[in-house]
Design goal:
This protein has 13 helices and 14 strands. About 35% of the residues lie in helices and about 15% in strands. By secondary structure, it is an alpha/beta fold. The protein binds NADP nicotinamide-adenine-dinucleotide phosphate (NAP) and 2-keto-D-gluconic acid. The site of NADP nicotinamide-adenine-dinucleotide phosphate has 29 residues, from helix 8.
């Protein structure tokens, strides 16, 4: 490895839009290469010959990995990496890293904000005030729903799920959860199936990863098990919810309300959800504060620096744990 004026002679490809702080650090430490999007058709011969790392928000497909024969590492920005083909990366001997922990508390805060907004209609109440309706028409209506008396189920009791659970405990509400495996030493009630969890609670918070194993797991059957007083909050991935079934359940009253930060085809949101008065919708802002995005950017770039200076990643994803650095 050669260093010229503190810069590593390693080309890092950054597809599309990316965090400014991360771009600044990559430009300082490496040879920054920009491309409009992570599309193999846009990869030039020079990129093919020189690119050894990718830093990205967006998806990296198997074809994109194959288009870069000298690729060693994909530093994905975010803890969820369902849009990166990590199994293919592992087969090709390419390391994949993500940004766990540094966003956990921020995303848990957002989940709680979204839950309260969904149940107590804070956005609609503020709009009532701003539109002059308080003066013109009187008090905002009483919210039909309340957190009082609710029982909460967490789908995905991982790092963020546990941070959400700690906050819910402070509200005095009982907590249960569903994962594929029971978490040893965790006192909350465990359900081996998602349907079983939905039957046991009236408030379901999803913070499970996306991908094949959770695809449309929250379907009509699970929503009907949640019941007519049911509230769904999804801050995990949009792909985990059958959105057509959810819109139907919100319209028919099969569940009472939903709060969604994530959607299956972002930034597109189905009209049926936009039209639902009992849905509270956010544009994927779970981790979106300057503070937390900077910490994520630093961890993303620190992974690249550690890989190219010390030949080790800081936060590898499980699929590529055994990938070794070429010496
Ligand atoms: P984590 O610590 O890996 O937790 C994931 C949890 O989900 C684990 O407890 C896991 O347990 C469970 N799980 C995984 N696959 C499952 C399946 N098929 N069925 C049931 N449970 C399953 O991850 P984290 O740091 O908490 O992050 C979780 C997810 O949140 C990310 O992957 C990302 O998609 C999402 N996220 C969203 C935002 C946002 O802005 N909205 C921000 C950050 C993260 P088992 O392995 O035992 O099943
Ligand atoms: C980010 C996220 O919005 O970390 C995740 O999994 O969903 C969010 O924190 C996203 O990764 C930025 O592209």
């Amino acid at each position: 490895m050669t260093r010229a004026e503190g810069k590593l002679s390693v080309a890092i490809l950054v597809p599309g839009d990316f965090n400014d702080h991360a771009v600044g650090r990559i430009d300082k430490a490496f040879k920054l290469v920009r491309i409009e999007r992570a599309d193999p058709a846009l990869v030039t011969d020079e990129m093919r010959a020189t690119v050894r790392g990718i830093a990205s928000y967006a998806g990296i497909s198997a074809a994109m990995i194959d288009a870069l024969p000298n690729l060693e590492i994909i530093a994905s920005f975010g803890v969820g990496y369902d849009s990166v083909d990590a199994n293919h990366a592992a087969k090709r001997g390419v390391m994949v890293t993500n940004t766990p922990d540094v966003l956990t508390e921020e995303v848990a805060d957002t989940a709680i904000g979204l839950l309260i907004n969904t149940v107590r209609e804070l956005y609609a109440a503020e709009k009532w005030l701003r539109d002059g309706d308080w003066v013109e028409k009187g008090n905002y209506r009483l919210s039909r729903l309340t957190l009082r008396g609710r029982s909460v189920g967490i789908f995905g009791m991982g790092r963020i799920g546990r941070a959400v659970a700690r906050r819910i405990e402070a509200f005095g509400l009982p907590i249960a959860y569903h994962n594929r495996r029971k978490v040893e030493g965790l006192a909350y009630e465990y359900h081996a199936t998602l349907k079983g969890l939905a039957e046991a609670v009236d408030t379901l918070i999803c913070i499970a990863p996306g991908g094949a194993s959770t695809e449309k797991a929250i379907n009509a059957e699970v929503l009907s098990a949640l019941g007519s007083n049911g509230v769904l909050v999804n801050i995990g991935r949009g792909s985990t919810v059958d959105e057509a079934a959810l819109a139907g359940a919100l319209k028919s009253g099969a569940i009472a309300a939903a709060g969604l930060d994530v959607f299956a085809d972002e930034p597109k949101v189905p009209q049926s959800l936009l039209d639902a008065p009992n849905a509270s919708l956010l544009p994927h802002v779970g981790s979106a504060s300057v503070h937390t995005r900077r910490a994520m950017a630093d961890l993303c770039v620190d992974n690249l620096v550690a890989w190219f200076t010390e030949r080790r990643p800081l936060t590898p994803v499980p699929e590529t744990l055994n990938v070794k650095a070429h010496s």
